[in-house]
Amino acid sequence: MKTGIFEAVHHCLMISDPVGKCEQVPRLAEWLAADPAMFDEGYPVEPVTIPGRPDRPELVDPMQVPRRRPGSQQGRAALVHAIAHIEFNAINLALDAAYRFRGMPAQFYSDWISVAIDEARHFEMLQRRLQEMDCCYGDFPAHNGLWEMAVKTAHSCLVRMALVPRVLEARGLDVTPGMVQRLSSAGDKDTVAVLEIILAEEVRHVAIGTHWFRYCCQLQGKPPLPTFLELLQKNYSGTLKGPFNLDARYRAGFTEAEMSALTAGL
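Request: output the structure for the sequence above.
Response:
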């Protein structure tokens, strides 16, 4: 019996070896392009409390993660490691979206598989950069906040699209320019080059989340702006603090009304 796309995505999601996962992700797009009708709707949707990931890095409380000061080689390595951890988690987040939420248009699955491919490539670039720094992924502790939000939002595609790409991943659009500036000041042109690629491509990922969030709002007859702000207030501790990368956020689909509300701390 031919394996369907949901089974294939789930298999890839549960691969623990980063190299194996990154090698497998692009094959999903090739498979889907070769047979767009291969949606195996009968394949069960199982809870994924722990996705495929290596034994290291050690996952600790966010307050226990080492400070990442770019003024030293060790600090820059810790920073690159933290971003690599985000990108590895982002692979799993994109795969989980493609696996978990059924009954969506075919483009939804194509979109999130394409995001997983980008995130895998980002992880590989950062892993190579770590190796150039005589480190590898797993050498520093990390936290599990991104995946914890995936578990928290597994019940609803609308909630997932609101809180993962449009909150957690959108924060990357805000903070990356500052990291680029600090690394440039430290003379780390190689890491800057990688981060500039990631920042440019992450705009599309957040835009995909924006598109499908609004699609889900339309399906459920909910107004996007108050729905987004309500979910943010209920599920995100504290307020989102600027400065915001307004140019990137607007290109990712945020409206002026949304940014006015976020800037006001709503």
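The chain has a mean pLDDT of 93.
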